[in-house]
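Question (not urgent): is this output format expected?
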Amino acid sequence: MTAADAPTIGGLEVQVLDFPTDAPEADGTLAWDHTTMTLVRAHCGGTTGLGWTYGDPATADVITGQLADTVTGRPAFDVPAANEAMSRAVRNSGRPGLVAGAISAVDIALWDLKARLLGLPLIDLLGAARTEVPVYGSGGFTTYDHHRLAEQLGSWTEQGITAFKIKIGESWGTSERRDLERTEQARRLVGEDAELYVDANGAYTRKQAVRVGRTLAGFGVSWFEEPVSSDDLTGLALVRDAVTADVAAGEYGYDLPYFARMVPVVDCLQADATRCGGITVWLRAAALAQAHGLQLSGHCAPHVHAHAAAAVPNLRHLEWFHDHVRIEHLLFDGALDPRGGALNPGASGAPGLGLTLRPQEADRARTS
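Got this back:
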């Protein structure tokens, strides 16, 4: 195929979708009752690639106003070049935050489009480093009562998942008693052999995080996510050195330099392809972590990450996040099955991410 014959990106189609939660949800620093998705469809002839991010509806305006013209007409196979062009186009808009989310959604759609044009599952295009992607069940919101928490953990156990994460940190500078009581309850529910994780979403002070972290060791907690703000690099290092659980952070990384700053202060690096710049930058973050002897964990949006995660030799696991799992199974045919505690992306042989949009569900949730 000559350059003149190479397929080009014909345009982008963008929708904002809104999904009410199935119950009130909260963590240590935020409460919410709905989740917003910006869905991108990248077209090339009769082939369409899917990509998305979770965040503010204004993300769609960035895509239509600044990114669509930037990528339209570019070679559909040159995804990293399109990613770089988008990053340059938003220079004066400020890349972190929802702008990075917009780039991410388009980048994901372009990788899906490329794989579909080639008739390959995305993992076959990227090249597999593993056949299975381990997952952990993630939810356990601070708004859950004992019954709801038990129900959720039990449903994951029935699927064969053996690692679980709950939210803590609601005390936010006051007593940590309920945080510890809920963690102890979770340990009883999942049993002694399961991996138990907690996520404070940056709610604790440094000393509070150390105090809680040392108590959590008695419950066998092996993963302490964002014990303090992810912007407090000194605090993350302090907590990491003071507790036995692995300290993890990085979900708010919007560019590669952020991950470079994060690497020296965590035990495991997190990255979110729907925020950091798409699959293009997520794979670079994985390489950066590997160069420093760290594993990488995929944050949320499991159907975005699954194929890329299978291409990463230093992957620790992927978050099977309750909200996003519910939405992605509702919205797409071809959603993955976590039974046995792992995903098998590409096993169906379907091209790209292996997903087919259900238009009626998208229309039902569409706000713009």
